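Contributing new records

If you add data, match the layout below exactly. Sequence lines come first and carry their own label; structure lines follow with theirs. Keep one chain per record. Anything else will be rejected by the validation script.
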Amino acid sequence: AVVSTQSTGNKSQPTTSTTSDSSSEPPTSTVDRLINHPLTIPFLKLTLWISLLLFFAHHQFGSVFFLLSIPVFVWQSMEEYKRGPRELSAYSVFNKKLERLDGTFTSEQWERELKYGPAAVRKQD
């Protein structure tokens, strides 16, 4: 609500006007809630996959469909999650400048521990 004052003659009268932002309101209908639900797309994908599996199983190709769908599931699972700009991968080869996570056990650290003992190993910056 926005409150402003209007002057009429010598008197000031406050007036209230409401501004509504329809983009910040939650969906109101059941259809909108179902469409915007986070599990709608995965449920539809699973339903489609089961339907196709039953179709191909009826035509004696169920095992072929199942085996060919495994790489598709692996590819889809890798596409789902994207890291943020400063979020590091657990595998340093995928990070810029091969940056390692804190606490990563490296072959260099292991070699130093074998040569000089565990007390000789310090965190290197």
